[in-house]
Design a protein that fits this description.
The chain contains nine helices and eight strands. It is an alpha/beta fold. The radius of gyration is 21 Å and the shape is globular.
Length: 305
């Protein structure tokens, strides 16, 4: 016989659900009815074919060792010396807002600009690519999807099984979640541009090898240069580390505005990671709300139907 949940536990569950409702993340979660005493259903079975990589765990909050000042939603060390108490210096604020991960490569800086470049030319240059080992096992080259004049570009790691079969990026379970994320922002897929670091599916959905990334990523850079978006969202560690040319873990800089060749870049967790770790959806929604603010999109508080 299933044990009845205690009133205290029921209350905690209700508070947790209300918390996610107030975050405005309704589209990330299934609709719910009034909380009852029934035990929550088991999590959906995990489909390993959707996972391109193992993301790093969410960072744990560290207790401040020094007095702090609060500016907006950020916490900064208080200035020392004769500075007024409870006021953060501008240099301290800038250090937090614009601290970029250290680069381990300058490969992209060496790339030459292609005169009169276009997405059509890039696709023609890729051709039926056999430049790396991925060309021998793929079914389709997965170039991109969406608006070639988009202000917002999402960059993922690489195609999965569904994408390899269809030739379109982000169409599997993770892709459906990405679509929900885009719609939660008040946009549609046709309004944004979606592409990947590598254009061919790695066997078994393993992470792409460094030489595969080096071979394929110049085409991604050309795509981003042609589209010239206002904001780039790097989905997952591989996309973020590739574009920022760093080995620093994504949890160290996720949610911060960073620079990619003069364009604003926001790194956040991959939809496939969210399928395995639903609590991280609220963190991603915070990142997307920053993107919305940058694009001038209204952040609406979603209420249950």
């Amino acid at each position: 016989m299933t044990a009845r949940l205690s009133e205290q536990l029921q209350s905690k569950i209700a508070e947790r659900l209300a918390f996610h409702e107030d975050l405005g993340t309704k589209l990330f979660y299934r609709e719910r009815s009034v909380v009852t005493t029934r035990v929550a259903p088991a999590a959906e079975p995990f489909d390993a074919a959707l996972v391109n990589q193992e993301e790093e765990p969410l960072p744990k909050q560290k207790r401040q060792a020094t007095p702090v000042a609060v500016v907006g939603a950020q916490v900064y060390p208080e200035p020392r010396g004769n500075a007024a108490p409870h006021l953060a210096t501008q240099s301290a604020i800038d250090a937090v807002l614009f601290s970029a991960p250290s680069k381990t490569s300058n490969f992209f800086a060496s790339l030459k600009t292609v005169p009169n470049d276009s997405l059509l030319k890039i696709r023609e240059d890729i051709g039926e690519c056999q430049r790396c080992r991925l060309g021998k096992t793929r079914k389709h080259i997965v170039f991109a999807d969406g608006n070639p004049k988009a202000e917002l570009v999402f960059v993922g790691e690489g195609p999965g099984a569904d994408e390899d079969a269809s030739g379109v990026p982000f169409v599997g379970r993770a892709g459906k979640l990405l679509t929900q994320m885009i719609e939660a922002m008040g946009l549609q897929r046709k309004d944004v541009y979606i592409c990947n670091v590598v254009k061919c599916r790695p066997p078994g959905n393993r992470p792409p090898e460094p030489d595969e990334v080096t071979t394929c990523s110049p085409f991604l850079v050309r795509q981003l240069e042609v589209i010239n978006p206002k904001v780039i969202v790097a989905l997952g560690a591989t996309a973020a580390k590739t574009l920022l040319e760093t080995e620093t873990g994504i949890s160290k800089f996720r949610g911060q505005w960073l620079d990619f060749r003069g364009k604003k870049l926001m790194a956040t967790y991959h939809p496939a990671y969210l399928l395995r770790n639903p609590p991280a959806k609220s963190e991603v929604w915070k990142d997307l709300k920053k993107v919305m603010a940058e694009l001038g999109l209204e952040v609406k508080k979603n209420k249950p139907a």
